[in-house]
Design a protein that fits this description.
Chain lengths: 133, 405, 844
């Protein structure tokens, strides 16, 4: 019997409430979730480990979500990045998509909405892996 | 030092046709604005449930938007009613200051308490939103459908929801009572049977083709390959007026000679302002229903029906959740302030919207039957009044189909 | 008690009227911005909707209504001083509604379907090129074309718009423009395709299509194929859309939907996107042709595509039906026949044919094994060849160009023509490198795009100054310098690269006229591309590839048709909406009767509103103090300043001018710091992308949409201690800054609005991108629609607000000539980087 490896997700957001709410909600779906509160910290972590999905807020002090996006994509072609944008910032979202983000979600949102996007990303990853053989 | 010199009304008179257009177009914007404001309330109500991850900017943006919406409603009302007044703006400023204070204090509190002590309770953003929502929607002027109970809402508005309702109703009342005589009507239709009421049809917004629509309706002919989107409300209303539901009755209308200027004192006069995608019907003071407004569009959100009047046709029965739409395709909402009321429905499907407009036509037609003997002093329009009441009951009765929430 | 607002006599309470005026002004300014946004949106929408579209008309109606309210606002503000404007607007509105009405009536006459014989009599663009070409074949060979009908482009528009289908797809489409992640792209396109497949057809359309389809009484079904406008004409689109063969009558509607949705397959969509085609240029008609039972079928080229000078025709054939052959998926028998004599075979190559596609009686096609002797027998007889040869000549004469013809030979030996299109003379697919993925590596980058677009073809390097007399059709020319002599080669060129050359010169103009994708200023290209035989040129993105990185079909076009770039500007509808004639407030023409478009009125109202506010200010203060003064400055700016309260505290009384340092206003000082920053240059430009300059000049001379504004036209500034409202017009655009900066962050805001004028739409958009990116990265919230940029910066402490305002000042100073500097999105990004790095010299 083949055990499906649980999806490795990292969530980056400088707001505690986001991390507090998302971590248990996503873990409930069987994902492994690590959380970070700043871009610099997660970049260091990304040097050690490749995640399947990176969820990052786009606006953070210091190292912001766009930089995280760029770094992730540069390091790994098998990681899907989802960005969290603030209210009414479509331009940012488009910029992220143009840079290669998988998708975006805008606040306010329910954790379940994010989960749906993550599932799609997971599907895409699976398809890619199958294609790659 | 007087800064306003005399407003020169003479120039205005010569431009009357545009003046009517402006009033009605501005009224339309006001209605849309009110709709947006209520939609924001609905959104706030949903987002305060605690399930959402919120964003301070979201709340600031919603506050901005809702107060700006309120300001515009007041402004438009003032311009429509030629009032040159600034009533209401200061009140809005005060209310806004309160809202911002709520937000500020909640934010400050979040820092103080430290989140460790919060545990699983709602975050500060949700709490703030709840407080905001409660403050904005303090007064129970809104409800759904035909309830019974005592009139609600003070004449002098206090909360935000009251102010916007007040602005809307004020504008409607002005249109009902004071809309000046405008450009010559496209047609004056008269009831063939009794000859005692007339319907004047005005084409607004420079729209063309109204005569053809009227002609077709009178001849009861469907027009060629229908260009279904043009002057639709007019078309449907006239259909309702000229044909009864079972095709048996229906009033026959004939075109009035334009020569006959004298208006019979006993004539009940209705004015219909038709645009490409909207219709405004003005009814005389004998009726409790004074204005009927409807607009159509490609999106359900653009389909709207509004009824305005004085003295309640049905008495309200307390307040239910005013904003969250039920899972029914066709809820009807109401707003009452003193003896002025309005009922409305939006997010209708095209078919539903059409149906309502047609039924209004039927009801009016039915109401044209006069009871009693005009010579004997019985007021013309009694039957009219009853029929309107029946229509309203029917419209608002739909609430009965809505499961209680 | 009276319900509604209490009527107060005007002027009763002190300050009441000022408050009312303030409310009015605010509403007016808001509405003004809204209108400009709407105008910008409608201009953007014209990429997706034709002007006959009801959706577009509705938006313009709304704009007209909004303009009416704007005029009313002005009159409320000015006590009815501009009542004459109502009449002006009424006239414009009347023209617009008249036009709508006319378009609507005409619409009713536009057919949903056309039978093939009717196609040529119908208005251009209705039937699509494929059907039109067949119509032309029928002119001389009526018996050779199977019966058929076309569902017109009008039907396509109705299908898209009447059920609300397009509005539900449009947001997805707009989002797709930015997407690079291919999974997401596929995902979204799938969503779009799903919507199309499920969408209902208008009732009358359904009836008509089924009725036409029902006329086929035979046992065979329909071949349903796309006939897109632009297909088989300028851009081949070959193989991009779905063809469905042998559709039973009853399934006609679903087949229609399937063909329509095929334009949103990734390949088709990317093809269009890369070509930067507007949606509006590619509406789709769908051709229904009765299927012919095929003994054999194939293609006929009236000249050999590789070697057009060789006097022969090339014929390829297979047993059964030939979709696989046409798509390049299999090889068939190949015959090269002399043009002068069908009996003379220059080459003949019979391949073993192991299978054939035949009609499945249930619908669709079946693959059958060929019988033993069929495998090696030629699929074409001598009679067939002769017949095809005759058809080829006849049609070539009629079309006056070499042709690519699809034919079918039925069991009785009769020859049918099922498709004909101009032959694109180019290397065959075998000699072009296989399609590379989206991230193909260019072998050379740079240069200045003179004409956007892309091309692939054989490279012709010319090292000397003298040009060859001829080049192969479809060649890409590489020259050291672009001289007007290239005119003689233009009909054959697919692309042009020049190491030097003046993008504003004559040669460049010619290349643009012929829409030949071109790059100038690519130094060292001759050396770098010395060994290349086939290249792909992407002039838009300034890249050159080996071979062709695009999923190009086997053929590319050679015939150049003139496609008007901004055809919508000719539309009378747009004449009354977009053009701006009132450009100079100081001119005597700047009056109510000088307005002939909505844009004029909007501009007029804005200007007069600001004037009125200043008049109010004067009157309110009385004659003693001059509340309005001119700002003293060396910069080429003419700014009138009005004190809203306390801002002139530092200045003496009675003066008509004021120095910037004397204005006691926190936000003003901050923005002035940026505007007057010595690092910004107001002196002019040293080096400018000449293409851009030409574009600006052309637009202003043509007077369409832009207007030449004098540098330093009148600008307004309202100032108070903690508030400013600044309206600037510099060169070709306007900027509005609205800011409240005090000690408490909660109430602070900085709002910025920018709308461009001058230059063509694509340049204005690029400038807006530059601004949007710069602002976004400076922590503003930004909303960009087309060339309108709105940005805001809220609830920040004083110092951050001041920095933001200084940034806005610098941006305003440097953005004047950006439409000349920024030629593409990459440059927009680069300039943003430079600005943010403080490299202001780049903007000199």
């Amino acid at each position: 019997m083949v055990m499906k490896k649980p999806l490795e997700i990292v969530v980056v957001d400088d707001e505690l409430i986001v991390r507090k709410r998302l971590k248990p909600a996503l873990e409930k779906s069987g994902y492994h979730v690590e959380v970070y509160d700043d871009g610099a910290g997660v970049l260091k972590r990304l040097e050690e480990k490749t995640f399947d999905i990176v969820v990052t807020d786009v606006r953070m002090e210091d190292v912001d979500g766009m930089q995280v996006l760029e770094q992730v994509l540069a390091r790994s072609s098998h990681t899907k990045v989802i960005i969290i944008t603030g209210y009414a910032t479509v331009e940012v979202a488009r910029e992220a998509l143009a840079k290669g983000a998988f998708d975006f979600i805008a606040k306010p949102f329910k954790p379940n909405d994010l989960r749906v996007i993550i599932e799609r990303a997971a599907d895409a990853l699976r398809t890619e892996r199958i294609r790659a053989g | 030092m007087g800064f306003w010199t005399r407003w020169d009304p003479s120039r205005e008179r010569s431009l009357a046709p545009i003046a009517i257009d402006r009033k009605i177009i501005r009224f339309r914007r006001l209605v849309e604005q009110h709709s947006e404001v209520l939609e924001i309330f609905r959104d706030l109500e949903e987002k305060q449930s605690g399930e959402y991850i919120l964003d301070r900017r979201y709340m600031e943006a919603r506050i901005d938007r809702v107060y700006e919406g309120a300001r515009r409603i007041l402004y438009d009302m003032h311009v429509i009613s030629d009032s040159h007044s600034d009533e209401g703006y200061e009140a809005l400023d005060r209310l806004r200051a309160v809202s911002e204070k709520i937000l500020k204090e909640a934010f400050a509190a979040s820092g103080r308490q430290g989140l460790a002590s919060r545990g699983e309770t709602a975050d500060w953003e949700t709490l703030a939103l709840q407080a905001l929502f409660q403050d904005m929607t303090r007064a129970p002027v809104y409800g759904t459908g035909a309830d019974s109970g005592t009139p609600t809402g003070a004449v002098a508005p206090e909360s935000l929801t009251e102010w916007v309702g007040w602005g809307h109703l004020g504008a409607a009342q002005w249109l009902a009572d004071s809309l000046p005589d405008g450009p010559p009507p496209v047609a004056t239709l008269m009831d063939e049977e009794t000859g005692l009421w007339t319907l004047r049809v005005f084409a607004l917004g420079g729209v063309k083709g109204a005569e053809a629509v009227i002609r077709d309706s009178l001849a009861r002919q469907p027009s060629g390959r229908p260009d279904t989107t043009s002057l639709l409300p007019l078309r449907v209303f006239l259909e309702g007026l000229t044909r009864s539901p079972d095709e048996a009755g229906g009033r026959r209308l004939r075109l009035e000679d334009t020569g006959r200027q004298k208006a019979d004192k006993r004539t009940v006069r209705l004015d219909l302002y038709a645009g490409d995608d909207f219709l405004l019907l003005r009814l005389p003071a004998v009726s409790s229903l004074r204005l009927f407004w409807c607009s159509v569009g490609m999106e359900p959100a653009e389909q709207r029906l509004y009824l305005y009047g004085t003295s309640p046709p049905c008495r309200p029965r307390g307040v239910q959740k005013p904003f969250l739409a039920a899972q029914h395709p066709y809820p009807v909402y109401r707003c009452r302030i003193a003896d002025k009321w309005m009922y409305w429905a939006s997010h209708l499907s095209w078919a539903q919207g059409e149906e309502r407009v047609r039924v209004l036509g039927h009801s009016l037609a039915a109401g044209m039957t006069l009871r009693g003997d005009p010579a004997g002093g019985e007021p013309v329009g009694t039957g009219f009044q009853e029929s309107i009441a029946a229509f309203l009951k029917q419209t608002t009765m739909l609430q009965r189909e809505v499961p209680e929430w | 008690m009276m319900f509604g607002p209490t009527r107060r006599r005007a002027g009763k309470e002190p300050g009441q009227d000022a408050r009312h005026a303030y409310q009015c002004l605010r509403t007016l300014l808001d509405r003004n911005t809204l209108l400009l946004e709407q105008m910008s949106e409608v201009e953007a929408d014209l990429r997706f909707y034709p002007s006959t579209s009801p959706t577009l008309q509705k938006r313009i109606s709304r704009m007209t209504d909004e303009t009416l309210l704007l005029v009313e606002d002005l009159n409320v503000l000015s006590r009815n001083r501009f009542a004459g404007l109502y009449r002006t607007l009424d006239r414009i509105r009347d023209r617009l509604t008249g036009r709508f009405h006319a378009l609507r009536s005409d619409r009713r006459l536009i057919p949903i379907t056309l039978s093939l014989p009717e196609v040529l009599k119908a208005p251009r663009g209705l039937a699509g090129n494929k059907a039109t070409n067949l119509g032309r074949v029928m002119e001389i060979l009526p018996a050779c074309v199977p019966p058929g009908f076309v569902v017109t482009t009008e039907a396509y528009w109705r299908f898209m718009h009447e059920g609300g289908l397009f509005p539900s797809i449009l947001p997805l489409l707009q989002e797709l423009e930015a997407v690079r992640d291919r999974d997401l792209l596929r995902n979204r396109l799938e969503t779009i395709r799903g919507k199309i497949l499920d969408a209902p057809l208008p009732e009358d359309m359904e009836r008509e299509i089924l009725s036409c389809a029902g006329r086929n009484n035979g046992p065979l079904g329909w071949a349903v194929r796309s006939s897109a406008e632009g297909e088989d004409g300028r851009f081949s689109f070959a193989g991009q859309f779905q063809s469905i063969l042998n559709v039973p009558n009853a399934e006609a509607l679903q087949a229609y939907r399937r063909v329509v949705r095929s334009r949103f397959q990734p390949r088709a969509y990317l093809y269009r996107r890369e070509l930067v085609l507007r949606e509006i240029d590619t509406p789709m008609a769908v051709l229904f042709l009765e299927v012919v039972d095929a003994r054999s079928a194939g293609v006929l080229y009236t000249r050999e595509p590789n070697k057009p000078d060789r006097n022969c025709m090339l014929i390829q054939s297979v047993w059964g039906l030939a979709p696989d052959l046409v798509a390049g998926k299999m090889d068939g028998d190949r015959f090269l026949v002399e043009r002068s004599d069908p009996a003379k075979r220059i080459e003949e190559c019979i391949r073993p044919k192991t299978g054939k596609l035949v009609i499945d009686p249930r619908g669709g096609l079946l693959r059958q094994e060929t019988s033993g002797e069929e495998t090696n027998r030629p699929s074409l007889s001598h009679e067939d060849l002769k017949g095809l040869w005759e058809i080829g000549h006849a049609l070539e004469r009629h079309f006056r160009t070499p042709l690519d013809i699809e034919w079918v030979s039925d069991p009785r030996g009769k020859l049918w023509v099922v498709q004909a299109r101009p032959l694109l003379l180019q290397e065959t697919i075998a000699e072009v490198s296989s399609p590379a993925p989206l991230d193909a590596m260019p072998i050379l980058e740079g240069g200045i795009p003179v004409q956007a677009g892309r091309a692939s073809g054989p490279l012709v390097r010319v090292e000397t100054a003298s040009l060859p007399g001829r080049v192969p059709a479809g060649a890409i020319l590489l020259i050291p310098a672009a001289t007007p002599e290239i005119a003689t080669l233009l009909p054959s060129l697919a692309g042009c690269i020049s190491e030097t050359g003046n993008p504003a010169g004559h040669a460049a103009a010619l290349l643009r006229e012929w829409k030949v994708p071109s790059l100038f200023g690519l130094e060292g290209a001759l050396q770098a591309l010395k060994e290349e035989k086939m290249i792909g040129l992407d002039a838009t993105h300034r890249r050159i590839y080996r071979g062709s990185p695009w999923p190009e079909p086997p053929h590319q076009r050679v015939r150049k048709e003139r496609v008007p770039e901004n055809s919508w500007e000719d539309d009378p509808l747009c004449k009354y909406v977009f053009p701006l004639h009132l450009t100079d407030p100081a001119s005597p023409r700047f009056r109510t009767d000088g307005c002939s478009s909505l844009h004029d009125i909007i501009r007029f109202v804005h200007e007069k509103a600001m004037e009125t506010v200043f008049d109010l200010g004067d009157r309110q203060a009385g004659r003693r103090k001059h509340r309005a003064r001119r700002l003293e400055t060396d910069l080429p700016l003419d700014i009138i300043v009005l004190d809203l309260g306390g801002a002139f505290a530092g200045a003496g009384e009675g003066a008509k001018t004021i120095q910037p340092s004397q204005i006691d206003s926190i936000p003003f000082q901050a923005i002035w710091r940026g505007i007057s920053d010595p690092a910004m240059s107001w002196a002019g430009r040293r080096q400018v992308s000449l293409k851009g300059f030409t574009s600006v000049l052309i637009s202003s001379m043509a007077g369409s949409g832009a207007g030449a504004r004098k540098l330093g036209a009148r600008n307004y500034l309202l100032a108070a201690r903690d508030y400013i409202n600044l309206n600037l017009r510099l060169a070709y655009h306007y900027t509005m800054v609205d800011a409240l900066v005090g000690e408490s962050p909660e109430n602070n805001f900085v709002n910025f609005r920018f709308r461009g004028g001058g230059a063509r739409a694509d340049r204005r958009e690029l400038r807006a991108r530059f601004l949007a990116e710069t602002l976004l990265r400076s922590r503003f919230a930004v909303d960009r629609r087309g060339d309108l940029v709105t940005a805001w910066f809220r609830r920040h402490p004083r110092s951050r607000c001041e920095e933001a305002l200084a940034l806005l000042g610098r941006l305003t100073a440097c953005s004047r000539q950006l439409d000349m500097l920024i030629a593409n999105t990459k440059m927009a990004h680069e300039y943003a980087e430079r600005f943010l790095a403080g490299d202001y010299k780049a903007f000199h």
